[in-house]
Amino acid sequence: MPSEMLSGPDLGAGFLHQLSTDRDGDRTTFTYHAQVGGQDANGPPKGPLDVFGFVHPLSPCQFGGPRCWHRRFLVPFAETARVRQCYNRNRFVLQTMIDQAFSGGPVPIDSALAEVVGRLDRLPAEAAGDWFVGGSTAAWLLGAKLTPHDVDLGTTRAVVDRLGALFADYLIEPVATTDWPVAGIVRGARAFVGTFATGARLEWSVPLDAAAERPFEEWSGRPGIPRLATASFHGREVRVSRPEYSLVRAAEKGASDRLPTLVDLVRRLGTDRELLEVLLDRSRLAPATRAEVRRSVVG
Known about the structure:
- It is a single chain.
- The chain has eight helices and eleven strands.
- It is α+β, with helices and mostly antiparallel strands.
- The protein has a domain at 4-102.
- Strand 7 (171-180) and strand 8 form a beta hairpin.
Protein backbone atom coordinates (compact mmCIF):
# COMPACT_ATOMS: atom_id res chain seq x y z
CA MET A 1 0.00 0.00 0.00
CA PRO A 2 1.45 3.42 -0.88
CA SER A 3 2.22 6.01 1.73
CA GLU A 4 -0.70 8.14 2.85
CA MET A 5 -0.31 11.69 4.15
CA LEU A 6 -2.23 12.21 7.39
CA SER A 7 -1.28 15.82 8.12
CA GLY A 8 0.51 18.65 6.40
CA PRO A 9 2.10 20.48 4.95
CA ASP A 10 2.53 22.30 8.28
CA LEU A 11 5.04 25.08 8.89
CA GLY A 12 7.28 25.80 11.86
CA ALA A 13 10.82 26.26 13.20
CA GLY A 14 12.13 26.74 9.66
CA PHE A 15 10.79 23.41 8.41
CA LEU A 16 7.89 22.10 6.36
CA HIS A 17 6.29 19.20 8.26
CA GLN A 18 4.16 16.24 7.21
CA LEU A 19 2.88 13.11 8.92
CA SER A 20 2.44 9.98 6.81
CA THR A 21 1.59 6.32 7.34
CA ASP A 22 2.48 3.08 5.57
CA ARG A 23 0.38 -0.03 6.26
CA ASP A 24 1.50 -3.60 5.65
CA GLY A 25 -1.10 -5.95 7.07
CA ASP A 26 -1.11 -5.50 10.83
CA ARG A 27 2.10 -3.46 10.75
CA THR A 28 1.80 0.32 10.53
CA THR A 29 4.72 2.72 10.25
CA PHE A 30 4.16 6.40 10.96
CA THR A 31 6.73 8.91 9.70
CA TYR A 32 7.43 12.49 10.71
CA HIS A 33 8.79 14.41 7.70
CA ALA A 34 10.66 17.73 7.91
CA GLN A 35 12.42 19.65 5.18
CA VAL A 36 13.72 23.20 5.02
CA GLY A 37 10.67 25.40 4.56
CA GLY A 38 12.16 28.82 3.85
CA GLN A 39 10.79 32.15 5.08
CA ASP A 40 7.21 30.85 5.07
CA ALA A 41 8.25 28.46 7.85
CA ASN A 42 9.99 31.20 9.87
CA GLY A 43 13.31 29.97 8.48
CA PRO A 44 15.96 29.22 7.75
CA PRO A 45 16.27 26.69 10.62
CA LYS A 46 19.03 27.28 13.15
CA GLY A 47 20.38 23.75 12.96
CA PRO A 48 19.89 20.16 11.75
CA LEU A 49 17.45 17.73 13.30
CA ASP A 50 19.82 14.82 13.89
CA VAL A 51 20.25 16.04 17.48
CA PHE A 52 16.61 14.94 18.00
CA GLY A 53 17.04 11.53 16.36
CA PHE A 54 15.95 12.44 12.82
CA VAL A 55 17.78 10.87 9.86
CA HIS A 56 17.79 11.32 6.09
CA PRO A 57 16.21 8.35 4.22
CA LEU A 58 18.40 6.25 1.95
CA SER A 59 16.32 7.21 -1.11
CA PRO A 60 14.49 10.46 -1.97
CA CYS A 61 11.29 10.93 0.02
CA GLN A 62 8.12 11.15 -2.05
CA PHE A 63 6.91 13.99 0.17
CA GLY A 64 10.08 15.93 0.98
CA GLY A 65 12.64 14.97 -1.64
CA PRO A 66 16.27 13.89 -1.18
CA ARG A 67 17.02 15.96 1.94
CA CYS A 68 13.89 15.26 3.95
CA TRP A 69 14.44 14.44 7.63
CA HIS A 70 12.55 11.39 8.98
CA ARG A 71 11.51 9.95 12.35
CA ARG A 72 9.69 6.61 12.10
CA PHE A 73 7.53 4.67 14.56
CA LEU A 74 5.90 1.25 14.45
CA VAL A 75 2.51 1.80 16.08
CA PRO A 76 -0.90 0.09 15.61
CA PHE A 77 -3.07 2.00 13.14
CA ALA A 78 -5.80 2.21 15.78
CA GLU A 79 -3.57 4.66 17.64
CA THR A 80 -3.47 7.17 14.77
CA ALA A 81 -5.08 9.91 16.84
CA ARG A 82 -2.40 9.56 19.53
CA VAL A 83 0.39 9.70 16.96
CA ARG A 84 -1.16 12.80 15.39
CA GLN A 85 -1.27 14.48 18.82
CA CYS A 86 2.43 13.72 19.35
CA TYR A 87 3.29 15.00 15.87
CA ASN A 88 1.51 18.30 16.47
CA ARG A 89 3.15 18.87 19.85
CA ASN A 90 6.55 18.08 18.33
CA ARG A 91 6.25 20.75 15.65
CA PHE A 92 4.83 23.27 18.16
CA VAL A 93 7.80 22.89 20.56
CA LEU A 94 10.46 22.33 17.89
CA GLN A 95 11.47 25.99 17.77
CA THR A 96 12.09 26.01 21.52
CA MET A 97 14.10 22.77 21.33
CA ILE A 98 16.18 24.11 18.42
CA ASP A 99 16.85 27.34 20.33
CA GLN A 100 18.05 25.27 23.29
CA ALA A 101 20.27 23.08 21.11
CA PHE A 102 21.83 25.75 18.89
CA SER A 103 21.28 29.21 20.41
CA GLY A 104 21.88 28.70 24.11
CA GLY A 105 18.20 28.86 24.97
CA PRO A 106 17.53 28.21 28.67
CA VAL A 107 16.64 24.65 29.72
CA PRO A 108 14.64 24.74 32.99
CA ILE A 109 15.89 21.39 34.22
CA ASP A 110 14.94 21.93 37.87
CA SER A 111 11.26 22.69 37.24
CA ALA A 112 10.93 20.10 34.48
CA LEU A 113 12.53 17.40 36.61
CA ALA A 114 10.26 18.30 39.53
CA GLU A 115 7.26 17.71 37.25
CA VAL A 116 8.77 14.43 36.01
CA VAL A 117 9.52 13.09 39.48
CA GLY A 118 6.08 14.16 40.71
CA ARG A 119 4.41 12.16 37.96
CA LEU A 120 6.66 9.17 38.51
CA ASP A 121 5.40 9.04 42.09
CA ARG A 122 2.06 7.94 40.59
CA LEU A 123 3.49 4.62 39.44
CA PRO A 124 2.10 1.64 41.36
CA ALA A 125 4.21 0.33 44.20
CA GLU A 126 5.47 -2.69 42.24
CA ALA A 127 6.92 -0.39 39.55
CA ALA A 128 8.18 2.43 41.78
CA GLY A 129 11.77 1.19 41.68
CA ASP A 130 11.86 0.59 37.93
CA TRP A 131 13.22 3.98 36.92
CA PHE A 132 16.25 6.18 37.50
CA VAL A 133 17.65 9.45 36.16
CA GLY A 134 20.63 8.99 33.87
CA GLY A 135 23.00 10.93 31.65
CA SER A 136 24.16 14.45 32.44
CA THR A 137 21.12 15.17 34.62
CA ALA A 138 22.25 12.38 36.95
CA ALA A 139 25.65 14.02 37.24
CA TRP A 140 23.98 17.40 37.84
CA LEU A 141 21.86 15.92 40.64
CA LEU A 142 25.02 14.53 42.23
CA GLY A 143 26.58 18.00 42.25
CA ALA A 144 28.43 18.40 38.94
CA LYS A 145 28.63 22.04 37.87
CA LEU A 146 27.14 21.60 34.41
CA THR A 147 23.87 22.42 32.66
CA PRO A 148 21.99 19.39 31.32
CA HIS A 149 20.30 19.74 27.94
CA ASP A 150 17.55 17.19 28.63
CA VAL A 151 16.34 14.55 31.09
CA ASP A 152 17.14 10.89 30.37
CA LEU A 153 15.26 8.20 32.24
CA GLY A 154 16.39 4.63 32.62
CA THR A 155 13.53 2.18 32.97
CA THR A 156 12.60 -1.48 32.51
CA ARG A 157 10.86 -3.32 29.72
CA ALA A 158 7.85 -3.78 32.01
CA VAL A 159 7.42 -0.05 32.68
CA VAL A 160 8.45 1.69 29.44
CA ASP A 161 4.84 1.86 28.16
CA ARG A 162 3.48 2.97 31.54
CA LEU A 163 5.66 6.06 31.35
CA GLY A 164 3.91 6.96 28.10
CA ALA A 165 0.60 7.08 29.97
CA LEU A 166 2.13 9.24 32.73
CA PHE A 167 3.46 11.80 30.26
CA ALA A 168 0.75 11.49 27.59
CA ASP A 169 0.05 15.23 27.41
CA TYR A 170 3.76 16.01 26.95
CA LEU A 171 4.65 13.37 24.33
CA ILE A 172 6.35 14.56 21.14
CA GLU A 173 6.93 10.99 19.95
CA PRO A 174 4.62 8.06 20.71
CA VAL A 175 5.73 5.10 22.78
CA ALA A 176 6.74 2.85 19.91
CA THR A 177 9.22 0.46 18.41
CA THR A 178 11.62 2.81 16.67
CA ASP A 179 15.24 3.29 15.63
CA TRP A 180 17.33 5.58 17.81
CA PRO A 181 20.73 6.46 16.33
CA VAL A 182 23.51 4.78 18.35
CA ALA A 183 21.02 2.90 20.56
CA GLY A 184 19.51 0.91 17.66
CA ILE A 185 16.02 -0.60 17.70
CA VAL A 186 14.29 0.32 20.95
CA ARG A 187 10.93 0.63 22.59
CA GLY A 188 10.86 4.23 23.70
CA ALA A 189 9.42 7.72 23.54
CA ARG A 190 10.28 11.39 23.81
CA ALA A 191 8.36 14.18 25.54
CA PHE A 192 8.76 17.91 26.09
CA VAL A 193 7.86 18.76 29.66
CA GLY A 194 6.60 22.33 29.91
CA THR A 195 4.82 24.81 27.68
CA PHE A 196 5.44 25.40 23.98
CA ALA A 197 7.79 28.27 24.90
CA THR A 198 9.73 26.77 27.78
CA GLY A 199 10.48 23.28 29.03
CA ALA A 200 12.91 20.39 28.79
CA ARG A 201 13.10 17.31 26.59
CA LEU A 202 12.48 13.98 28.32
CA GLU A 203 13.61 10.66 26.80
CA TRP A 204 13.41 7.00 27.78
CA SER A 205 13.87 3.71 25.96
CA VAL A 206 14.74 0.04 26.37
CA PRO A 207 16.70 -2.02 23.80
CA LEU A 208 14.85 -4.70 21.84
CA ASP A 209 17.71 -6.56 20.19
CA ALA A 210 18.41 -10.14 21.17
CA ALA A 211 22.10 -9.60 21.93
CA ALA A 212 23.33 -10.96 25.23
CA GLU A 213 23.16 -8.37 27.97
CA ARG A 214 26.46 -7.06 29.21
CA PRO A 215 27.02 -5.98 32.80
CA PHE A 216 26.97 -2.29 33.70
CA GLU A 217 24.95 -1.06 30.67
CA GLU A 218 23.32 2.25 31.59
CA TRP A 219 20.22 1.72 29.43
CA SER A 220 19.83 -2.07 29.57
CA GLY A 221 16.09 -2.07 30.23
CA ARG A 222 16.53 -4.57 33.06
CA PRO A 223 16.85 -4.00 36.81
CA GLY A 224 20.16 -4.71 38.47
CA ILE A 225 22.30 -4.06 35.39
CA PRO A 226 23.19 -0.31 35.67
CA ARG A 227 25.41 0.91 38.49
CA LEU A 228 23.33 3.41 40.46
CA ALA A 229 23.71 5.95 43.25
CA THR A 230 21.22 8.19 45.06
CA ALA A 231 20.86 11.97 45.03
CA SER A 232 18.70 14.38 46.99
CA PHE A 233 16.20 16.39 44.96
CA HIS A 234 13.53 18.65 46.47
CA GLY A 235 13.55 16.74 49.73
CA ARG A 236 13.44 13.21 48.36
CA GLU A 237 15.96 10.58 47.35
CA VAL A 238 16.19 9.88 43.61
CA ARG A 239 18.07 6.98 42.05
CA VAL A 240 20.64 8.13 39.49
CA SER A 241 23.27 6.45 37.34
CA ARG A 242 26.90 6.62 38.41
CA PRO A 243 28.89 9.61 37.02
CA GLU A 244 31.45 7.31 35.35
CA TYR A 245 28.90 6.92 32.53
CA SER A 246 28.79 10.67 31.86
CA LEU A 247 32.56 10.99 32.22
CA VAL A 248 33.35 8.44 29.52
CA ARG A 249 30.60 9.75 27.25
CA ALA A 250 31.91 13.31 27.60
CA ALA A 251 35.41 12.11 26.72
CA GLU A 252 34.06 10.37 23.62
CA LYS A 253 32.30 13.55 22.53
CA GLY A 254 35.37 15.68 23.16
CA ALA A 255 33.38 17.79 25.66
CA SER A 256 36.49 19.18 27.34
CA ASP A 257 34.46 21.83 29.18
CA ARG A 258 32.60 19.10 31.12
CA LEU A 259 35.48 16.79 31.89
CA PRO A 260 36.98 18.62 34.91
CA THR A 261 33.70 18.81 36.84
CA LEU A 262 32.90 15.16 36.03
CA VAL A 263 36.36 14.04 37.10
CA ASP A 264 35.94 15.97 40.34
CA LEU A 265 32.54 14.36 40.94
CA VAL A 266 33.79 10.82 40.33
CA ARG A 267 36.72 11.33 42.68
CA ARG A 268 34.54 12.94 45.34
CA LEU A 269 32.06 10.04 45.33
CA GLY A 270 34.83 7.46 45.18
CA THR A 271 35.66 5.93 41.83
CA ASP A 272 33.89 2.73 40.87
CA ARG A 273 37.03 1.29 39.28
CA GLU A 274 35.35 -1.83 37.94
CA LEU A 275 32.69 0.21 36.16
CA LEU A 276 35.21 2.71 34.84
CA GLU A 277 37.42 0.00 33.37
CA VAL A 278 34.48 -1.68 31.62
CA LEU A 279 33.24 1.61 30.16
CA LEU A 280 36.70 2.63 28.97
CA ASP A 281 37.25 -0.79 27.40
CA ARG A 282 33.96 -0.54 25.48
CA SER A 283 34.45 3.09 24.47
CA ARG A 284 35.58 4.46 21.10
CA LEU A 285 38.45 6.30 22.78
CA ALA A 286 42.02 5.86 21.61
CA PRO A 287 44.22 3.93 24.07
CA ALA A 288 46.13 7.08 25.02
CA THR A 289 42.91 8.94 25.81
CA ARG A 290 41.64 6.03 27.88
CA ALA A 291 44.82 6.12 29.90
CA GLU A 292 44.46 9.86 30.38
CA VAL A 293 40.89 9.54 31.65
CA ARG A 294 41.94 6.69 33.95
CA ARG A 295 44.81 8.73 35.41
CA SER A 296 42.59 11.74 35.94
CA VAL A 297 40.39 9.87 38.41
CA VAL A 298 42.52 7.08 39.89
CA GLY A 299 46.04 8.51 39.59
